[in-house]
Design goal:
Elements (H helix, E strand, L loop, with lengths): L12 E6 L14 H9 L20 E6 L8 H14 L3 E6 L5 H9 L6 E5 L19 H7 L5 E7 L4 H10 L2 E4 L15 E6 L21 H10 L4 E7 L10 H18 L4
Parallel strand pairs: 1-2, 1-3, 3-8, 4-5, 4-7, 5-6, 7-8
The structure holds manganese (II) ion.
Length: 276
């Protein structure tokens, strides 16, 4: 167990907001998520300690780099890639707050340059492996096709999938993606990696009973506790991650912001804990 508030990772964990939802195929709204997740993370309603007893509010544990600007002459993917590259150049490990899931592709373009061996563990109701969706190859339904085409990771494991169709099944086979559907899910499974691993969490992997604030509610998903348990128990060096697709316009009770913040805190703790 890591000592409270201490990290043996150079620049620690750097939270970076990516307030972009322009590649959403059904509902906009996820761009408004980062400040709401931060507000829950920093709220006096709770403390900053992870369940593994790491104080996320201790100086030096987690640095907040704020939100990127989504406007300007460069396209959004270039802006995201540049911002993440700056985090890594400073020795930090990026923990990105979406935004829609399209952000993961440019994030991984930057991360890959630092890690010649890299695995990707994706939690999601959807495979997001479409070659193109409604004419857009950069839709939030497509990032993992782009990631695999560019060989930005050596291995992709998808957990919680429950919307598979023939096209995405063919894409998964073509790219050698290891798909664990919700039907096959075994809550006792422990994931172990012998390479650095990036963790991408689409909140719609959760059952919408726990997290209604989503653009695509897909019943029959993980509980919050099941997701936390996988993150806490996974073995290997977690070098980056994202929590995406929280849509505040679909979250009347506000509970999804708290769920997102809880997951960010536990994922940050897992990134800081180099003992596993
Ligand atoms: Mn999804």
């Amino acid at each position: 167990m890591a000592q409270s508030g201490q990290s043996s990772r150079g620049g620690g964990v750097v939270v970076l907001g990516l307030p972009y939802d322009g590649s959403s195929s059904f509902l906009r709204g996820a761009a408004a998520a980062p400040p709401l997740i931060r507000a829950a993370l920093n709220s006096d309603a709770t403390n900053g300690w992870s369940e593994s007893q790491i104080d996320m509010r201790a100086p030096g544990a987690v640095r907040d780099a704020g939100d990127i600007s989504v406007d300007g002459p460069e396209d959004i993917r270039t802006r995201i890639e540049t911002a993440v590259a700056a985090v890594l150049a400073g020795g930090g490990h990026p923990l990105c707050l979406g935004g829609d899931h399209s952000v993961t592709y440019p994030v991984l373009r930057a991360v890959r340059r630092h890690f010649p061996r890299l695995a990707l563990l994706q939690f999601d109701a959807h495979s997001d492996l479409y070659d193109s969706f409604e004419g857009d190859r950069y839709s939030h339904a497509c990032p993992f096709a782009r990631i695999m085409e560019e060989r930005l990771v050596d291995r992709l494991i998808q957990v919680g999938i429950r919307t598979m169709n023939p096209h995405q099944r063919a894409q998964a086979d073509r790219f050698g993606v290891e798909v664990i559907t919700m039907e096959e899910w075994d809550a006792t499974q422990i994931f172990s990696f012998d390479t650095p691993v990036y963790v991408s969490i689409d909140l719609d992997v959760l059952d919408p009973a726990f997290a209604p604030g989503l653009s695509h509610r897909e019943p029959g998903g993980l509980s919050v506790r099941e997701l936390l348990r996988v993150i806490q128990r996974m073995r290997g060096e977690v070098v980056g991650g994202d929590v995406v697709e929280f849509n505040p316009t679909q979250d009347p009770s506000g509970v999804t912001a708290w769920v997102a913040a809880k997951i960010v805190r536990e994922l940050a703790a897992r990134m800081l804990d180099v003992s596993r």
